[in-house]
Request: fold
Amino acid sequence: MRNPYLPYPVRIDKITTETVDRNLKTFRFVFLNPEDEEKFAYTPGQFAELSIPGKGEIPIGIASSPTEKGFVAFTVNKVGLVSSYLHNMQEGEVMGIRGPLGNWYPWDEMEGQNVIIVGGGFAFTTLRSSIIYMLDPQNRPKFKDIIVVYGARNPGMLLYRDELAAWEQRDDIHMHITVDGTDDPDWKYNVGFVPAITEKKITSAEDAIAIVCGPPIMIKFTQPVLEKLGFPPEKIILSLEMRMKCGIGICGRCNIGDQYVCKDGPVFSLAKLKKMPPEY
Ligand SMILES: Cc1cc2nc3c(=O)[nH]c(=O)nc-3n(C[C@H](O)[C@H](O)[C@H](O)COP(=O)(O)OP(=O)(O)OC[C@H]3O[C@@H](n4cnc5c(N)ncnc54)[C@H](O)[C@@H]3O)c2cc1C
Ligand code: FES
Reply:
């Protein structure tokens, strides 16, 4: 059996600065050994440990979709030791990826349903993975309407701006992009907080499942909006970002009650979270 602590060696293939404050960058990695790409078979919603020798590891959601071949991508916010070191690395440098880790969005349950995606700020990463996955021609017929509400503080803080603009033009996905505020006279999308735009744009919970990822304050105010619309707690899906170390259910760093967020999560239904101690 493969040692679960051993990362796959990868090369940084492409770095994209996503936001105007330059604190969010997307790193595209290519596996040094092509057969490792197959071993790193993942499902949207999962995460991996990005491993920098001599510096440490950070758990980061997988932002690429398994339908995108030849690379795996992560969008990283520069907050502390390891993420700042990564932000200073260059294309061509070699590091490691350990995973894929954790569970994923409930794809079996989502088939045949309207899928409502509600995202805020840089927590949009695994939601991007999910959108690309669902829009793949092989997968698109499996889902009914795909409706996305995505917001950031201002236009310059939105991730994946080219892709958002391209999705806006399609008729097989309904986009509701919003910002908290802007002084850009050319801004053509919504202005308002994510929960308020969700309340305005989502009109039915019928045959629908909602995936919500964002800062705690956004989740706190979006939850009652969805419940008022009639979403039962088992059809509201959230992804948690606890502090982690091993990522594989061994060190006991990330538990909430008897649940390990790294192994039993990071994806939980609201119904399941309501049964857990309120530590998240
Ligand atoms: C499942 C999962 C998915 C994640 N996905 C992403 C992602 O897609 N993109 C991304 O940028 N980040 C993501 N994170 C958060 C990321 O792991 C942390 O920001 C990172 O570990 C910080 O490491 P550091 O060494 O740079 O900072 P440190 O030097 O360790 O800490 C710097 C500051 O960040 C805080 N911090 C560190 N880790 C976390 C955390 N998990 N939650 C909240 N605050 C934290 C510390 O308390 C401290 O204030 C995810 C976390 C988890 C558990
Ligand atoms: S991070 Fe070690 S048990 Fe979850």
